[in-house]
Amino acid sequence: MSENSVYHDYDVPQNLEFKTIDIVRMGGLKCSCLLDAKYLDGLFEAPNRIIQVAVELSFSVASNEILVQGRVNGKREVQCARCLKMTTQDFEEEFLETYSNKQEIIDIMYVVRQTLALSEEIRFLCKPDCKGLCPMCGQDLNVAPCHCEPENLSPFAALKGKFK
Known about the structure:
By secondary structure, the chain is mainly beta. The chain has 2 domains: 5-129, no CATH class; 131-164, no CATH class. The protein contains 2 helices and 7 strands. Strands 1-3-4-5-6 form a 5-stranded antiparallel beta sheet. A two-stranded antiparallel sheet has the order 2-7. A hairpin with a 3-residue loop joins β4 (49-61) and β5 (65-79). The protein is elongated and about 85 Å long.
């Protein structure tokens, strides 16, 4: 049994491909393991990346199906959309899948990757009240205010004064 896996006498595969016959023979399975982040490389666009992942699984066997309940949690390193600083963010997602007990392999890694991809936020913030960067000088407004005069960013600013 590997060091980071938990189950009585079942070695949890690192690629999370389980043999259906083993799960049916045991009448179900509950297990958890830490995943190597390399299995999730390329899931998020750079510079965002997953740095730690744990998976908890529960397989329940019925007459023709296997129900898999899973929880994926860990940490990801993400770039703030406003100030561009890198920050660490916790995540936790759950999934529920049904598989035929006639198939040879149950690929849970596919479901884990799919679950994490669907949970990705459109934009990450280092904190809810992040002030971001000054659009004029690039100063991080969370650290110190800048002394730039704000420009009128209205698309109609060029028309000002043309009509009197």
